[in-house]
Every structure is written in C-alpha cells, then in structure tokens.
Amino acid sequence: MTTDATPDEAPCPYCGHTNLRSWTLCDHCGKQLPWAPLKRVLKVQDMTDEQLQARFAALPRRPAPYLLTPEGRPALGATVILVVVILEILREWLF
Ligand SMILES: [Zn+2]
C-alpha cells in the first residue's frame, strides 16, 4: 500500500485513512487503531480494596422529591397541602 503518511502517521487498516500515531481511534471510521494500547478489562479478583469499594459501594440514598422537615424527613402533609393549593390555583385559572 502506498501512502503519503509521515513517520508520525499511519493508515487505518480498515478504511485506509491516515491517522496520527498518537491517536487510538481512526479519525474517519472510528475503529481502534492497531498501535493503540489495548484496553485491559480489570477483573474483580484483580481489583484492590479501594477499587472494589469505588465500583460496588452502595450509592448514597437520595431523599424522594417531597418537602422535607428540618430533620430531613419527608413532610407528606406539607406536600399534600402544596399540591392542593397548586391545583386550586390551576382550577381558578382554567375554569
Ligand atoms: Zn479507519
């Protein structure tokens, strides 16, 4: 194959587009270039404790979108009152 690639460039084996050797994906077809370092999939048995913790730690629980009391508990009564007031306002507007 003839190419006008410089030493810093090489053609993609899939589409022939000339890519820089510092790139890992072909600029034209998006496939992984043969000189790109292979992505190593980290297996669970190879992970450190910190990696396991970061990967599998339970997500912090987020409160449901209710109004919350100062203690952080859902204030259902206030939420119901707010919904009723909004519905009343909408009813006044619409009818
Ligand atoms: Zn390509």
What is the secondary structure topology, with strand pairs?
Layout lengths: L8 E3 L6 E3 L28 H8 L19 H19 L1
The structure holds zinc ion.
The site of zinc ion has 8 residues, from loops.
Which structural traits does this protein have?
single chain, 95 residues, mainly alpha, two-stranded antiparallel sheet, 2 helices, binds zinc ion
Low-confidence stretches: none
Bound molecules: zinc ion
- Widest beta sheet: strand line-up: 1-2
General form:
elongated
Structural class call reads mainly alpha
Strand content: 5-15%
* Largest sheet descriptor: 2 strands, antiparallel
| Computed CA radius of gyration, to the nearest angstrom | 29 Å
Span from first to last CA? 76 Å
State the order of secondary-structure elements, H for helix, E for strand.
Answer: EEHH
* Approximate helicity band: 25-40%
Q: How would you sum up this structure, described in words?
A:
With 95 residues, the protein is mostly helical. Helix content is 28%, strand content 6%. It has helices at residues 49-56, 76-94, and strands spanning 9-11, 18-20. The longest helix has 19 residues, at 76-94. The structure holds zinc ion. The site of zinc ion has 8 residues, from loops.
